[in-house]
């Protein structure tokens, strides 16, 4: 018992350190990308908090799997301290953790982030008083609150299984709805709302994560072009544009006005020249910076990381393909949400996890690595593509120049993607996500000459056939499969994810090296933006 308490205390200490590391990372990440000229305290705090919630929520899945596995020995028996009451307390603690984090996500997505976004938009459009800005922001945020309320009501009062009583009155039916809502403690309502957001997160993962999984490793492997080489090319472009400008201006030396065509060309060339000179200043700063020299020194390490990331991406994609193929061949079909218990077609991740279970804590390290990889590739995808609404680009994510609204969108997208992460991991290793490394005892009868002799107990990995009192299901699984139609949507989303990843892989392979100032200089930038160069390159 003392050893168990010591292990739990150590676990809480590690959790505290991980929480501190997450907060430090979120602060550094937001400060790295936010614009220094447009930074706001409220938007900065909101972005840091939302990003921290996303990372903490993503870390809850490995913790859930670890806790259900930690209560049992490798021989299939429960540990001495893990009686029924302790097991129930641990399950409830994890469940309350999900309640808390998912409720915070709903609060961020439907109230806090929209309010801060519209408040900042109103502040830019109108220089009026604060009360007017707050009222306008609340007016627009009310639409998001209404959507959240509708989702909660649908989840709470539309049960999946309603007894078909022909003689029951309308009041009895309404009473039944309230009784079911009270018995589930709001779990169904919260699960429906979270599942609805998870579908949106699935679309975001298909758009950003699938591309980031291919772009991030290949960018690390290929690297960027040389700053000195780009500067030489840029100087040649400046000289060429200046010559064009001289030729056009020479036409009006005798006092004749320029034609409308020449005036348009002159304006375009002057804008082009301003952009090239900004590029020149950026390239000059990067060429002299210590950060560039450091990146060149660790270039071999970047290649190693790129190869590692592409291996993880291929492992992830192949496992997801085999898992989806298993569902297509062996599930009950669309009406059941393509849900299967156990696996009929094995995949690399399912083969690797049981091997790693033998050496603690390698299996948890792998799951945590996949979850974190999923998050960071999502960040890379959003950073490379920007934030889009259908075919319209709303915002760009650029180092030191990202607007507060873009950071809020970035954090909201990550919150939605994190919700989809749990189902992606479940698709890769359903049995492991349900039971972790738990085993249970079954009787094995040895027969001699057709007669039963010795009855022994052997341990077996927990699966759907295990007795309910012998294997504890993770709380993650309970949230994932409340509604079959969401599971069906996730199934088709996995196929779309694989397709987008393959397309992104082909595109990334065909593209050349990125510019060393990729995304740092655009035509719509002002000359004042160059003042922020010293933050990163000096």
Automatic annotation (TrEMBL):
Q: Which Pfam families match?
A: LMBR1
Q: Which domain of life is it from?
A: Eukaryota
Q: Name one GO biological process term.
A: protein localization to lysosome
Q: Which residues form a coiled coil?
A: 259-286
The entry's cellular-component GO terms read: lysosomal membrane
Molecular function (Gene Ontology), one example: cobalamin binding
UniProt keyword annotation of Aminoacyl-tRNA synthetase present: no
Q: Which subcellular locations apply to this protein?
A: Lysosome membrane
Q: Give start-end of the signal peptide.
A: none
Q: Which InterPro entries match?
A: LMBD1_LysCbl_Transport, LMBR1-like_membr_prot
Please provide the record's keywords in A-Z order.
Cobalamin, Cobalt, Coiled coil, Lysosome, Membrane, Transmembrane, Transmembrane helix, Transport
- The regions listed as transmembrane in this protein's record are 12-30, 42-63, 96-120, 140-160, 187-211, 303-322, 364-385, 406-426, 483-507
| Name listed for the protein in its UniProt record | Lysosomal cobalamin transport escort protein LMBD1
Name the family the entry cites. Answer: Belongs to the LIMR family. LMBRD1 subfamily.
Mode of membrane association? Multi-pass membrane protein
Q: What is its main location?
A: membrane
